[in-house]
Specification:
One of its GO terms (cellular component) is plasma membrane. The protein is globular. It has two domains: 14-112 and 217-305, D-Maltodextrin-Binding Protein, domain 2, CATH 3.40.190.10; 114-211, D-Maltodextrin-Binding Protein, domain 2, CATH 3.40.190.10. The protein has helices at 4-12, 47-54, 73-81, 92-96, 145-156, 172-180, 193-200, 225-230, 232-250, 255-262, 272-280, 305-317, and strands at residues 35-40, 64-69, 87-91, 103-108, 110-112, 114-119, 136-139, 166-169, 186-190, 203-208, 219-224, 282-284, 290-292, 297-299. With 321 residues, it is α/β, with parallel strands linked by helices.
Length: 321
Amino acid sequence: MLTRRIFLGAATLSTLGVLGGRAASAGKDPEPSDAITIGYVPIACSSPLLAADAMDAFRRRGLNVTLRRFAGWADLWSAYLTGQLHVTHMLSPMAVTPTSRPTNLAYTMNTNGQAITVASRLHSEISGLQDLRGRVIGIPFEYSIHSLLLRDALVAHGVDPVADLELRLLRPADMVAQLEVGGIDGFIGPEPFNQRALATGSGRVLHMTKEFWDRHPCCALAIGEDWQDAHPAQATAVTDALAEASAFLNAPGNHAEAANILSHERYLNQPASLIEPVLEGAYRNWAGEDIIDPERIHFGDATDPAATDWMREQLTRWELV
């Protein structure tokens, strides 16, 4: 099992008023400067953003926020880089990748919360990462913590992530369907899609990514430096709203209510029965043991400079920049 020490070594190199929330926009350009359109991909990592909207945490801070949903990361990133979005949910490595638009990783929305799920049909053939040679494994984006963590973990187990297997780009929403029809042998991805594979019986969790690096960053709120410099008070208010929502999501007594909020069609559009176990930390591992891990996913941790250094180093290591 890998540890965070290994990764840092590499670096050296009732529903709270949900019905009153603002609906996600399908393709609307940004409003005038007093309004903020925030992009997101509907995965559990975006929960602080979605909960803040449902709780009116933005409005109570004088912000006029509209959420705009994207099916995948490439479209969201394109919208951000072309100025259609100034504030957006991003995979943390996206936020630290050098691009034409200087970007601040303004808030770490979640740590942990990802898993490597492998087809149940392969249970007798696979006991660890070394057995993924020759397999097809889905990843959500090259510029993701999933991509970087998996590559690093495979190398530590003697597997070349370029030559020994195929890493196939898939939208998170397509991963379980591809697993079910045999298009892939497994995936590393966000929730609630690992939980969906568990619920349908199509997949089993081989590893939670926190087993490699506990409290690793995953998703972030990214803000264009140009917009933040012009709107510093609004930028601070946005992150304050996310901190309020993160505290709500982390509180054990709120998990059922939070799952109901997040399940709404304009947010995650997934059954609450798939979201609540994620928040509670309940899952069945590869060995068939029922686990309760309250740290399966956590929201709003401080951004770790060593983690951002590690992501930059890994992006260079795998020639992604």
